[in-house]
Amino acid sequence: MDAQILGAAAEDYAVHYLKRKGYQIRKRNYRYLKAEIDIIAQIDDFLVIVEVKARTTSIFGKPEEFVTPKKIKLLVSAADEYLQRENIQMEVRFDIVAVLRQHGKWEVSHLENAFYPFDGD
Question: How far apart are CA 82 and CA 84, in angstroms?
Answer without folding.
Answer: 5
